C-alpha cells in the first residue's frame, strides 16, 4: 500500500513497535512518538513523507534503522532529545539535539568509522570541551586512536594556510581512508574541518559537533564546507555531508552574548523566507532566547534545523530553492569582506543585509512597510544591527557584490521578500534602481 500524504494524518502502527505511531504534529512535519523512546522524539523532514510515495515496508525499514540506533542509547539526563533527519537518500543523516549530549558518548561512538579519529577545534573551544569529546570517543574501545588539532580562533584564520594545519596533522598522525574527522566548534571550525574531510584522501568520514548558535541552527547542517579567499568569503569549498550532527545545547552556556545574537540572525532568517509561524513565535519569545532559556533554544534550534533540512533535501547543490537560505547574505558578505573578516560577526552582517533587502523590497512595492517595521523591530530586540557601517561606500558594495557566488552570466541574483511574511524569491528580475536607492540610503557616498 502506498502512503499518500493524506494517509499519514491520523496514525498507524509499525509492526515491530506496536506502541509507535505516526501523527501529524504540524503540516510540515510528522512526528513519531513512542513510549519505547522515553522522551526521545523523532522528527522527519516533510520531504521524507510527502515528496515520494512510501510503502509501509519502506517506512518500516527506515524506522527500524533509526530504532536500532536509538534503542540502545540511554536517555540523556533530561531524558529528552530531538532528532531531525536530513533526507538525502543513502547520504541521509541525523541531527541530534538536546541537553548533555556530550555526556551521552554512545551517540557519537555509533558514527565513528575506522580506528582513527582527528578532532579539529580551536584555542577557545579546546579548553572547554575537547577532553570530554576525546574521552567520549575513546570510550568506544577497540583501540580507537584519537588525535586532535587546535587551530587559532577567528574568521581571519578561515583560510588555506590554516586549513593546511589540519592536513599536516592528519598526515603526521597517519590518518587513513577509514578515519573520521570531528569538527568541534563554531561555523569556522565546521566549515574548515568539513572541507578538510572532503578533500583529505579524496574524502573521509565527518562528524559535526557545533558549539555556537550559528553552527547549531545553520552551518553544521547541509554540507557546505570551505574557506575564504582574500577577495571573497567562502569562495573555495565543497559540498560534503557529515555522518551526523550532535547538538549539545548546554555548550551555549559558555557562548559570549554577541555570538549568541549573531546566531539568532539566522533563526530570524528562516522565519522570513519560509516559516511565518516561526517568525511570530520569535516575536513572542525573543527575550527568552536572549536569556538563554533552554526550552526556547531547544525549540528554535529544532525548528531551524527542520527548515534547513527541508530545503537541503529539496535542493542539495543549490540549483534553486537552497539559495533562499542566503537572504541578506549578498549585502552581508560585502560588509564582512570590506570590513575585514572578523570585524563584524557573520550574523551581524546578515542582519544588516536583511534590513537592506527589506528596504529594497519596500521600494519595489514587494512588501508592506508594516512588515519592514516588524523585521527591524525583531532585529533590534535581538540586539543586531539594522544598517551597515556608514563609511562603507556604494562602490565598495557594488564591486564586492559582483564577485558574489550568486552572480550568473554577469547578472546578480538576489533573495528578496515578496508578498506576506514567509515568502521570498531568488531572482535577477528586480529593479536595479531600487538597489541603487537602497545603497544610496545606507551609505554616505
Ligand atoms: N556552511 C554553512 O552552510 C554556513 C552557514 C552559516 C555560516 N557559515 C560560516 O560560519 C562561520 C561563522 O560561524 P560562527 O558564528 O559559529 O563563528 P565562529 O566559529 O568564529 O565562533 C564564534 C566564536 O565563538 C567561539 N566559541 C565557539 N563555541 C563556543 C562555546 N561553546 N563557548 C564559548 N565560545 C565558543 C569561537 O571560538 C569563536 O571565537 C562563518 O565563517 C560563516 O561563513 C557557514
Ligand atoms: Zn549565514
Automatic annotation (TrEMBL):
CDD domains according to UniProt: DHQS
A molecular-function term among this protein's GO annotations: metal ion binding
Record localization: Plastid, Chloroplast
Superkingdom as given in the UniProt entry: Eukaryota
EC number: 4.2.3.4
Pathway(s): Metabolic intermediate biosynthesis; chorismate biosynthesis; chorismate from D-erythrose 4-phosphate and phosphoenolpyruvate: step 2/7
Reaction equation(s) it catalyzes: 7-phospho-2-dehydro-3-deoxy-D-arabino-heptonate = 3-dehydroquinate + phosphate
Swiss-Prot/TrEMBL GO biological process terms: amino acid biosynthetic process; aromatic amino acid family biosynthetic process; chorismate biosynthetic process
UniProt GO cellular component terms: chloroplast
Keywords, sorted A to Z: Amino-acid biosynthesis, Aromatic amino acid biosynthesis, Lyase, Metal-binding, NAD
Gene3D superfamilies the record matches: 3.40.50.1970, Dehydroquinate synthase-like - alpha domain (1.20.1090.10)
Cofactor(s) this protein cannot do without: NAD(+)
InterPro entries: Dehydroquinate_synthase, DHQ_synth_AroB, DHQS/DOIS_N, DHQS_C
Domain 3-dehydroquinate synthase C-terminal: 263-407
Residue ranges of every copy of the 3-dehydroquinate synthase N-terminal domain listed in the record: 149-261
Pfam name, any one: DHQS_C
Role played: Catalyzes the second step in the shikimate pathway.
Family: Belongs to the sugar phosphate cyclases superfamily. Dehydroquinate synthase family.
Full protein name: 3-dehydroquinate synthase, chloroplastic
Native species: Ceratopteris richardii (Triangle waterfern)
Amino acid at each position: 500500500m502506498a502512503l499518500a500524504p493524506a494517509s499519514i494524518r491520523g496514525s498507524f502502527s509499525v509492526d515491530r513497535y506496536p506502541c509507535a505511531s505516526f501523527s501529524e504534529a504540524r503540516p510540515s512535519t510528522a512526528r513519531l512518538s513512542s513510549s519505547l523512546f522515553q522522551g526521545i522524539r523523532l522528527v522527519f523532514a516533510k520531504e521524507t513523507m510527502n515528496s515520494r510515495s512510501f510503502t509501509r515496508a519502506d517506512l518500516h525499514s527506515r524506522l527500524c534503522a533509526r530504532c536500532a540506533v536509538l534503542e540502545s542509547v540511554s536517555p540523556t539526563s533530561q531524558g529528552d532529545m530531538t532528532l531531525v533527519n536530513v533526507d538525502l537518500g543513502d547520504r541521509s543523516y541525523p541531527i541530534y539535539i538536546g541537553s548533555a549530549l556530550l555526556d551521552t558518548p554512545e551517540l557519537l561512538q555509533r558514527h565513528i568509522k575506522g580506528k582513527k579519529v582527528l578532532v579539529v577545534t580551536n584555542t577557545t573551544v579546546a579548553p572547554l570541551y575537547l577532553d570530554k569529546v576525546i574521552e567520549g570517543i575513546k570510550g568506544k574501545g577497540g583501540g580507537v586512536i584519537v588525535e586532535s588539532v587546535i587551530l587559532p580562533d577567528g574568521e581571519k584564520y578561515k583560510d588555506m594556510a590554516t586549513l593546511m594545519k589540519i592536513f599536516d596533522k592528519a598526515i603526521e598522525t597517519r590518518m587513513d581512508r577509514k578515519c573520521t574527522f570531528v569538527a568541534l566548534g563554531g561555523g569556522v571550525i565546521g566549515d574548515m574541518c568539513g572541507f578538510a574531510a572532503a578533500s583529505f584522501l579524496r574524502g573521509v568520514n565527518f562528524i559535526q559537533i557545533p558549539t555556537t548558535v550559528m553552527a547549531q541552527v545553520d552551518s553544521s547542517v547541509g554540507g557546505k564546507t570551505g574557506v575564504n579567499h582574500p577577495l571573497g568569503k567562502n569562495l573555495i569549498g565543497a559540498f560534503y555531508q557529515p555522518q551526523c550532527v550532535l547538538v549539545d545545547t548546554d555548550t551555549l552556556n559558555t557562548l559570549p552574548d554577541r555570538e549568541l545574537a549573531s546566531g539568532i540572525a539566522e533563526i530570524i532568517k528562516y522565519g522570513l523566507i519560509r516559516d511565518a509561524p516561526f517568525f511570530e513565535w520569535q516575536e513572542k519569545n525573543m527575550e527568552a532566547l536572549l536569556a538563554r532559556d533552554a526550552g526556547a533554544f531547544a525549540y528554535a534550534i529544532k525548528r531551524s534545523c527542520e527548515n534547513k533540512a527541508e530545503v537541503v533535501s529539496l535542493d542539495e547543490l543549490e540549483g534553486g530553492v537552497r539559495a533562499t537560505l542566503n537572504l541578506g547574505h549578498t549585502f552581508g558578505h560585502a560588509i564582512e569582506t570590506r570590513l575585514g573578516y572578523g570585524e563584524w560577526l557573520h550574523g551581524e552582517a546578515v542582519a544588516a543585509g536583511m534590513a537592506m533587502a527589506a528596504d529594497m523590497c519596500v521600494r519595489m512595492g514587494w512588501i508592506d512597510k508594516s512588515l519592514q517595521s516588524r523585521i527591524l523591530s525583531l532585529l533590534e530586540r535581538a540586539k543586531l544591527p539594522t544598517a551597515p557601517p556608514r563609511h562603507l561606500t556604494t562602490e565598495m558594495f557594488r564591486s564586492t557584490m559582483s564577485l558574489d557566488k550568486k552572480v550568473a552570466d554577469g547578472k546578480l541574483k538576489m533573495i528578496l521578500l515578496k508578498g506576506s511574511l514567509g515568502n521570498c524569491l531568488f531572482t535577477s528580475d528586480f529593479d536595479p534602481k531600487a538597489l541603487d536607492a537602497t545603497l544610496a540610503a545606507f551609505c554616505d557616498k
